[in-house]
Amino acid sequence: VTFETQVKLAVYGAFAEDGRAPSAQAIAVALGVSYEDVVAAFAKLRAERVLFLEPDGRTIRMAPPFSGVPTQHRVRIGAVEYFANCGWDALGIPAALRRPGTVLSRCEQSQEPLTLEIGEEGPAPSPWVFHSLVRASRWWDDLVFT
Amino acid sequence: MLFFRSEELVREWCEARGVAPNPCVRPRPALDPRDDVVRDAADARRRKRPSPAEMRGIFASIGLTGPFWDPEARG
Q1: ipTM, 2 decimals?
Q2: How far is A26 from chain B (nearest CA, A)?
Q3: Of A26, A34, A41, B61, which is the most buried if we count CB atoms within 10 A?
Q4: CA of B15: how far to CAs of A132, B1, B11, B12, B20, in Å?
């Protein structure tokens, strides 16, 4: 297992535990390595589009499907509430954690609240849809907007 | 990607902003955790950026085809 993979697993493990983005320092302590090595691994994972970082290059903004900042797309699994980067990622969090959950969001036009149960067999039947303004080839041009 | 109660509300939202609506996606075909593609994509140990060909395959498996869903399309 490469060092970048160890860092990636530590990041995803931390998100899974409490729904919050771990700091580079927390990952360094957890792995018993230097802060600088973790920041370097973050940069490699960003280049591979596994992580998306804040402009400081050391703060995790996204580890898809998890968001490091609060968003309108929340997922409740057990006692933990997670933030997703977008509607599609909200569906991905129960899949990533392999646990049933509840997606809480809203209709962007009517502001009607959305509550969507995600079971072991996927989302319950629902008339809701999601929509992207950005074509797939441009998603990473401005990932926050996407 | 934003949620909407219906495709009609997507059209209203886009019209208010002067943008053209794109194809909508329903939650059910977008995610079936029994699907190998979904399981692999969700597995942190395997997570990596899929190649364009893999992305096209993922999208096609849930019925999303055409230039809008092509990761290598120009424009």
Answers
A1: 0.81
A2: 19
A3: A41
A4: 14, 17, 6, 5, 7
